[in-house]
Specification:
The protein is built from six helices and four strands, in the order ββαααββααα. Helix 1 packs across helix 2, helix 4 crosses helix 5 and helix 4 packs across helix 6. The radius of gyration is 19 Å and the shape is elongated. It folds into two domains: 55 residues, no CATH class; 58 residues, no CATH class. By secondary structure, the chain is mainly alpha-helical.
Length: 144
């Protein structure tokens, strides 16, 4: 948190970052000072990611040095899936994105199962799809 002339500004992982890109190409430009060539080619992206991480570790002395510690520092403790599309609040899984942001997953499964079926057809991670599938199964069992 920083104070500027009486105004309080909190920046967090969930800040929308409207003004700066937050992707690998932007990180390569910022930390390495050049354009990321061959973006989205697996080998090139892995190499660039490793170089960006090394540059970040050089720049920020307070960053943890172990991958497990980095994961712990930058992962939402309430996250339910790796993509952090869902979070657990007081034992209840809730949406972290889209038109159902903040809504309980099970309620959406009961009231708008087509939205969850749409999610299953999209490019979400397998763990996110597992959370959605489990919610649809729970709802089906409750309604049977």
């Amino acid at each position: 948190m920083r104070i500027f002339s009486g105004f309080r500004c909190e920046l967090s992982r969930s800040h929308p970052y409207h003004y700066e890109r937050r992707d690998l190409a932007a990180a390569v430009q910022f930390y390495l000072g050049h354009v990321h060539e061959n973006g989205h080619a697996a080998e090139s992206d892995v190499e660039a990611t490793a170089k960006v991480l090394a540059a970040m570790l050089d720049r920020y002395e307070d960053l943890p040095r172990l991958v497990s510690d980095l994961h712990d520092q930058f992962t939402d403790p309430g996250a339910v899936d790796l993509g952090e599309r869902f979070t657990r609040i007081e034992g209840e899984i809730r949406f972290r994105f889209g038109k159902y942001r903040g809504q309980p997953l099970d309620a959406v499964a009961r009231e708008s199962p087509d939205y969850l079926k749409w999610m299953l057809a999209q490019d979400f991670g397998s763990d996110t799809k597992r959370v959605v599938t489990d919610a649809l199964k729970r709802t089906a069992l409750c309604m049977a």
